[in-house]
Amino acid sequence: MAVEMGLWRADGDKLSRLVPTSIGLESQLENYIESDSTMLGTTLLVIGRQVPTAHGGFIDLLALDETAAVHVIELKRDKTPRDVTAQALDYGSWVSGLSRAEIHAIFETYKPDIALEEAFAQRFNETLPDEVNAAQVFTIVAASVDAATERIVRFLNEDYGVPINVVFFRHFNDNGASYLARTWLVEHEGGVSPKTASVRTKTRESWNGTDWYVSFGDSPEGRHWSDGMAYGFVSGGGGEWFSRTLKNLPAGARVFACIPKIGYVGVGTVTGGAKRFDETVVAVDGVDTRLADLPLSGNYRHADDQDDATAEWAVPVEWTRAVPREQGFWRTGMFANQNTAAKLRQKFTIEEVSAAFGLDD
């Protein structure tokens, strides 16, 4: 059944129906969506406009949602029903093969003055996920479509679960004021399924096998970063959840230490495996010394820490560069994680911290 939108002006007890007009609407919709993508019913980050494909076509708009799924947005304009649907799917098939690096390149062409990670964080207040383009969504934007297009889209969406839909906009004028009304062809029911693991290698940022993120939970009553910086260690504990990932750090790994809500404060190389804090030995002025015997500022004891699961654990690190807490470095979009240690895949963070700490010199 064709979708029809109506708009009436209420003057007291009298209703006056406004007559819609599509004059010039579809030529303006691309600008409207680019300036405010929420008009499509969800928050999106536009990453490209008139994006050239490998097959000679141009995608009207490409965008990411908060899960980093890619949205292919095509305006109907004067295309035939088969053309607009086939084109959206054709473009989608090309987009599905794009790697994370290619998505970055598209955004860099579109917005060369800001990193994708930073733009994503500003838009969604979240770190860009490890997997980008693990799923695609297809949206056809139109003032109206005929019955054939409706049948095709409903068939694909409702019978086969293809995430394709049509969003309708109608334009109304009323005494000098302009209005847009919106509705969807198929009721929107949520997210899309990610790709299988065999395909994710292209959509996930690769790990260089060396770099790790470490969260150093500095607090007045607990561990102090000044100790870790001075004596060369990172630590975590008070529960197995906090210490278990720290034990994954291998000797020779490069760690990027970050104080939550402060920023990155150190980059260094792991020199030994994780041990209980009271058994960890570090080199101080060339002399191997137990951390527990040093004049520490922080408190590294926990209730019932005779048990390894609740004890504080530490990993010795030789710092390449370390700065006081007050000089912690942070940029919107950089990597952060609730685990004490995690593989650091995000090139944006590695490059920004390296530049800030002069590691590229």
Description:
This protein is α+β, with helices and mostly antiparallel strands and 361 residues long. The protein has nine helices and 18 strands. Strands 3, 4, 5, 6, 7, 8 and 9 form a seven-stranded mixed beta sheet that branches. A hairpin with a 5-residue loop joins β4 and β5. α2 runs parallel beside α5. The radius of gyration is 27 Å and the shape is elongated. It starts with 7 loop residues before the first strand and ends in a 5-residue tail after the last helix. About 3% of the residues have low confidence.
What's a quick, concise take on this entry?
With 361 residues, the chain is of the alpha+beta class.
Q: Give the SSE order as H and E letters.
A: EEEHEEEHHHEHEEHEHEHEEEEEEEH
Tell me the span between the first and last alpha carbons: 65 Å
Biggest beta sheet attributes:
7 strands, mixed
Task: Give the class from helix and strand content and strand pairing.
Answer: alpha+beta
What sort of overall outline do the alpha carbons produce when their principal axes are compared?
elongated
Kindly report the average pLDDT value: 87
Query: Spans of 5+ residues with little confidence (pLDDT < 50)?
Result: 190-200
Tally of individual helices: 9
